[in-house]
Amino acid sequence: MKAYLGDAVYAESAMNGVVLTTSNGVEVSNTIVLEPEVIAALFRFVESLKTAPRICPRCGETNAPASLKCDECGLDLTVEDSR
């Protein structure tokens, strides 16, 4: 069974890992097969994001890892700054 992850990305279980695909709703445009070792590396990467300080792309202020907004300028740190 495919699960929709967002941003046109779908995931489904494979015999030895996970298959990620992108689709426009009609056809699959990209396929990535993640083996168990790659899945583990991805999980480690995501965990590292939880402990790394968040640097504001607008003002350069160092914020706590769980910060949602910059302490200095108030920028929303949950989305990329479009400037």
Question: What secondary-structure arrangement, pairings included, does this model have?
Answer:
Layout: E1 3-6, E2 9-14, E3 17-23, E4 28-34, H1 36-51, E5 54-55, E6 62-63
What attributes characterize this protein structure?
two-stranded antiparallel ribbon; alpha+beta; four-stranded antiparallel sheet; 83 residues; 1 helix; elongated
Tell me what the structure shows.
- There is one protein chain.
- The protein is an alpha+beta fold.
- It contains 1 helix and 6 strands; from the N terminus they run ββββαββ.
- The strands form 2 sheets. Strands 1-2-3-4 form a 4-stranded antiparallel beta sheet. It has a two-stranded antiparallel ribbon with strand order 5-6.
- A hairpin with a 2-residue loop joins strand 2 and strand 3.
- The longest helix is centred in the middle third of the chain and has 16 residues, at 36-51.
- The termini are far apart.
- The model has no long low-confidence stretch (mean pLDDT 90).
